[in-house]
Amino acid sequence: MRVTFSALACVLSLLPQVALASSIEVKSRIEGAGQLIPAVAAVEANESLHVMVQPDAGFRLKQISGCNGQYDNGIFIVENPRYSCVISATFIADNRQPALQGESTAQSTAKAVPSEPAVTAAASGASSAAAAVSKKSNILRFILVANQVANSVTVTASVLSGLGTITPLQQNVLKGNTASVVVTPATGYVVSSVVGCGLSTTNSGALTTPALNANCTVNATFVQLINAIWDTFKWDQATWA
């Protein structure tokens, strides 16, 4: 019977690991100039995530994908993710000629070709209807973004001294969720400390904070390896010839 249980445990250890956590981590990967808000989020089981897609000035979204999500008018919607996943977005320079504010296709056609009063009235009505739909969409998007901002916290990261990196330098997460940072010492350096946002460690690599409810900062300190060895050497226990 012991052999049977051992064999079963061995087989189970080879099966794909299924996420049993109550929340799913969704991260973002960005190319070009723009941002996804929130950049990192934890989604509870059977819930959805709405991510605002925000290109920087002079840029536009080229493509966005991941987590089986759908893009809809500036919002990327992820419905009921089952596993941790990454949303990838690419922003490119916007070299297109900007359209006049509020001008519709019907209005442009009316300017190019003189029309009868009835046709002009129909075009004006279509333009007004399109403007009303656009205004409603913008209002709903504003409310969604405002709710996300009100329910999120900002996590800032910085290097206090030494050579190394901590990324991302800034991210937004929903209140009550965790945040992740990656700490990487430069060659010849080790982590002296990573402190802030509930972290207090000397580990490097991917680190995860506890649940956050307020803005905070994670500070990383690096020290040269030779200095670290020198400082930790137990001089009182050394044997001298």
Question: What features would you highlight for this structure?
Answer:
3 domains; alpha+beta; Ubiquitin-like (UB roll); 41% strand; single chain; 241 residues
Low-pLDDT runs of 5+ residues are 1-5, 15-21, 100-106
Structural category: alpha+beta
Strand order of the largest sheet: 11-9-16-13-14
Main beta-sheet annotation: 5 strands, mixed
Calculate the mean pLDDT score and round it: 79
Order of helices and strands: HEEEEEEEEHHEEEEEEEEH
* CA-CA gap between termini: 59 Å
Shape: elongated
Give the total of beta strands: 16
Helix content: 25-40%
Task: Give the assembly state of these chains.
Answer: single chain
The number of distinct structural domains comes to 3
Radius of gyration: 27 Å
Beta-strand proportion: 35-45%
Tell me about this structure.
There is one protein chain. With 241 residues, the protein is α+β, with helices and mostly antiparallel strands. The chain folds into three domains: 19-93, Ubiquitin-like (UB roll), CATH 3.10.20; 105-150; 152-230. Helices cover 26% and strands 41% of the residues. The chain is built from four helices and 16 strands. The strands form four sheets. A five-stranded mixed β-sheet has the order 11-9-16-13-14. It is elongated, with a radius of gyration of 27 Å. The model is unreliable at 1-5, 15-21 and 100-106 (pLDDT under 50).
